[in-house]
Amino acid sequence: QLDIIDERLRITNFITCFVSHLQWPNNVQLIGEDCAKSQLNGGKLPEINGESLKKALENTNELKKKLSKTQITIPWITLDDNVQNNHEAIEDLLQTVCTRYDGHKPDECTTATVDIYYSSYASNSRKFFIEQLIPTFRHIRERIRLNLYPYGPVDKNKTIEEECEMDAERCEANRIHACVLNRYWNQEVLVDNETALWDSKNQTLSFIHCFFKNIANGNSLEGLLQQCENEFLPIPDQINACVLNETESLGYLKKIRQKTIDVVENIPDNIAVIVNGEQISLEESNLQTIVCDELLGEKPMPCHRDKPSKVQVHFHYSAVDPEVTNFIKMNKFYDNYLHMEEIVDIQMIPYVKSSIDYQQLDCPGEEECRISRVHACVMNEFGNNGTHDAFDGQLQVIKFIDCYFSRLPEPDYLSIAQACVESTFHVDYWRSILDCAHSNESIDLLKQFNHEYVAQLLPKIAYVPWITIQDYHSYDAENHFIQTICDSYDGSEKPNECYQQINDKPSIELYYEPKNQRSRNVFITQFNRNRTQIDDLIDSIKPIPISQQNNNGTPECLNDFECVQTYQ
């Protein structure tokens, strides 16, 4: 039978299928049979015998002999007559081969050169790396030449030492990134055994991702470096040693600073992105779309898929409601949002069950009015902008909400809010929040929330928390918050939290008497959802009514009506 597919392509497709199989690295016979059906001509594995293994062993020993080695690291890629392991090919095989080829190159050899000039201590850089750059690079890395320059805006009237003195945290963060990039980004400089089995570009970006994800999580830069270095870099403490050596790290930074001055005229919002020599507008552009538009020939599969939109969640809450308190605590609100921010935006909307008329609030209670006005001022002040260039405003707001409700049911709402504002934002901000809450501005803000969000709801709010997803009220989100967000996201790549197995929930059988006082107390105190939300924690409940039994095991009722009532 004529096979129109190149045999070498079939073999590499088979190997790719094999190592990406769900059963890998276990049950290799099953994996081989599955991949043979889908990839090999004839759909069957060839007969396995010792000759194939013997030939492979001979080839391996011949390579070791040429290298004068007894062991080699895997994978080992050679180009032409050079038997040395080509690290560049391991990282970027397509680009390496295209560069080496002297003939007429196919369109698939075209790449997009992406230069990122950024501050390592800026919320806009954080957002761009987490939501755009890192996913785009991992999707189509074989067609991207990526260069990273951590510095940010340059004041040409100052020296680098003066700039570092004025903003020491930004300078230290930039030095950390400069040391990591200099040591690990370019595979060709890696010759030591510790890094031979290591994907330098992917792991370097994993370090940067870790750094940006946790930068507003209460970590010092030193602690952040240690956490991300230990998790993603192959040689512990190497980067820390570079950062502590000011001459070395500042030397790297000086070169990056000069490159920034030479190339970028303006760095708006601490980050500039240049694709094939042209600076793009981040507000109006999607990096993956722009890169794909620059490519010729057959484009990588992600280029043919639209980037999925983030799930839009509106979370209506009361600052004094115990149901909201239970919800925030049970769903580990801040921790889960931090892990899922790539796929979801959460708009927190303080809700007061009241009538708002002119400059008066008619609330169920004075305390609820006061604390709701505080929350409205916090949302307005920090919802879109963080208190520091490095911190994301929305993330800080979620952290404040988590802090506030984690301290309830302490009775002094105002003291709780003050403590959480001071720990999440800064001590100095509490006075401005309090001034806002005592002024008519806070009432205007609640009216604005009511007009923009609450008044548009159908159905109307009946309780809190009241959650909408993509503008539709979601009972599922109110009962299974994380899973509903995951299910609502159209993208194929989701955070690990979307795949965590739910712990087995217990099943309950409850034997009770309808007229028994202790049975009554258990139902009122333990099974009232408004108090405990017990239905979120159990798999099933089977109430079994019983009555007093006689010696024969049959119910002994005072009268027929009581028996009917018990077993109804």
From TrEMBL:
The superkingdom of the source organism is Eukaryota
Location in the cell reads: Secreted
The record, for Pfam families, names: GILT
| A molecular function GO annotation | oxidoreductase activity, acting on a sulfur group of donors, disulfide as acceptor
One Gene Ontology term, aspect cellular component: extracellular region
Q: Which PANTHER family does UniProt cross-reference here? A: GAMMA-INTERFERON INDUCIBLE LYSOSOMAL THIOL REDUCTASE GILT, GAMMA-INTERFERON-INDUCIBLE LYSOSOMAL THIOL REDUCTASE
InterPro entries recorded: Interferon-induced_GILT
Whether Membrane counts among this entry's keywords is no
Task: Please give the family membership noted in the entry.
Answer: Belongs to the GILT family.
- Would you tell me the protein name for this molecule? Uncharacterized protein
**Which UniProt key words apply to this protein?**
Glycoprotein, Secreted, Signal
Taxonomic source organism = Euroglyphus maynei
